[in-house]
Design goal:
By secondary structure, this protein is of the alpha/beta class. Helices cover about 50% and strands about 20% of the residues.
Length: about 130
């Protein structure tokens, strides 16, 4: 069964590229345009991993990450942002993100990190079902 990944990204061209790449890797992908949409999806769907932008309208990634850590602390998160927002990426790691990717996204690094982090989560869940 394919892992279910939530991509939270407000820039349509980037979200389409991420969706296409992740689907090519065998993931099932759901896209949200901001943190509020992402939280609404988490409330109604089982998600195995989150790939999330930090800078977004309506609700930014750091605010969404705080909510994820309170409500869904076991779901792994990879934060994304441009180099100029490196401080916010550091904050995201401090808030509980598992890793980060710098924009523009290196598709090989995307594949490596998503496969390792999200697959490891599912493996842990199968070993320790709650």
């Amino acid at each position: 069964m394919a892992l279910s990944i939530l991509v939270v990204e407000d820039e349509e061209d980037i979200s389409l590229m991420l969706q296409d790449r992740l689907m090519f890797l065998g993931f099932y992908v759901t896209v949200a345009r901001n943190g509020a949409e992402g939280i609404a999806i988490l409330e109604r769907m089982a998600i195995d991993g989150i790939l999330m932008d930090i800078q977004m309208p309506v609700m930014d990634g750091l605010t969404m990450l705080k909510h994820i850590q309170e409500q869904y602390p076991n779901i792994p998160v990879i934060a994304m942002s441009a180099e100029i927002n490196k401080e916010k990426l550091i904050q995201a790691i401090e808030l509980g993100a598992n890793d980060y990717l710098l924009k523009p996204i290196d598709v090989n690094l995307l594949a490596k990190k998503c496969t390792l982090i999200f697959s490891a989560y599912v493996d842990r869940q199968q070993l320790n079902p709650s």
